């Protein structure tokens, strides 16, 4: 299905977070949104999947006006894999995935054989068939994320939204999750934070900074040294990966002293990461207070 | 299509049906047994004969003793309504607890902790002391009505208080509940403290500790009808309650508007709590512990959780009441004390157990 977002504005707690963003995802396309922490990626996605009400603008899924439709009719077409999936109550993996059938069911309807088959196929796709009876809360982060993906698959969506689905995951699971999604061949809009992964999986990239799209197009053309410097405020070198032939990015720390000392370089990366985490938290708290 | 585990699922379903049948049978057995236990010792066969005669008119043995006499009075007019009230109130409390835990996505929620019981109690106190509760059946309804208003008011206040300053979180809901609980109790105590009506004070004290002693046949229909409607309605809501536990955001992406359902469920829970508090006073902790115990056996899926919790809690309250009325010779404990004795340690255990957290996240 084709998604069309036009002139979207979102204001949270008096602050403009998304300022006039327009984007398109064509049928079967994998479109990525990248940008630094707090740039409005999550807020943009949340207003597309109806958790946040935008101030202005329109979102269309084919002919359907997403912002004016009720959640149930949208959830039959659109699946979402979010960032945080902690629960206070435990469910089995099978029960979790079965919840993906909710949009297609009346309140009084019980799960039929077809639902079980859909859940079975979804579990098979994420390679968790043998986990069906395991309790969700005992799973690792990567496994939990695959369960959530299976739940979205069980929704039989024609369109998928992923909000940093690979956050906190080992590289193996990052690749795995994105490959599974890519193999579904439905229109996908994903916020990603790893630029190399985004370059590998996305057909089209939108680069967002301060709530605005600053560049868009195919990854090879969009991701340049200059753009990364402008958006992420960091120097880098882009080269063709000698093994895969794909795009590779080497980041260069700003501090020259760091380059000289391995020991201090490690510490600096660590601090840099800490910094990221903090700003991530701020972004979250902004989202949660509204 | 790939081979599915549909057969094993069908098998699981039949195991579940068995559990329901066994529990239903256990409820019936508990009622019969509980009726024959009490301060006045009446042999089991005797009480069984009286029950059968009163219900079906079939006399077993000597008919003279079955139609009237002190034993008939005790069994038919005192114990049976009381045991039935315990059954209904028990299932109602567990139903409220389960629904509220889902509505606020917090395992620590129940009508008592969220301040709804206190609200109902304040309503009842108000109606008794200020004099809105007239005599007779209408009077009973009047108290129930005011208890419902109190419960609803408390629920609304909790929801409003928890949503101040942005998004409602489950921690805020529990904290708001604690505040409302304290506030309503204070107001009840205030009314009682300045009242000169000794009879009124006694009946208010009864409300705050909970007792099934006032059970009479004419009080049962109201609470039974409210409960029956609520149970039938909520049993079909399991799918929505399941998605509720996934959190607000996920629920929206699964097509459920939690805002609406949370309010609807709070109103229904307030209604049940109001009716229960009006007839039996505040019985704490039942709505908290029973859903947890049941969840640890059948899991969190409300399709299984709700019916099992309703049945198990009926059994639980029947036997707690038996304990309350037999443990002290020639007297009885308020049932709220007995349930708190069971409930408080359970609550402590849950707080200590790491996996529950305080609403996760």
UniProtKB/TrEMBL annotation, chain A:
Keywords: ATP-binding, Nucleotide-binding. Residues 261-290 have a biased composition (Basic and acidic residues). Residues 3-235 form the ABC transporter domain. Residues 260-290 are annotated as: Disordered. One of its GO terms (molecular function) is ATP binding. This is ABC transporter ATP-binding protein. It comes from Paenibacillus profundus.
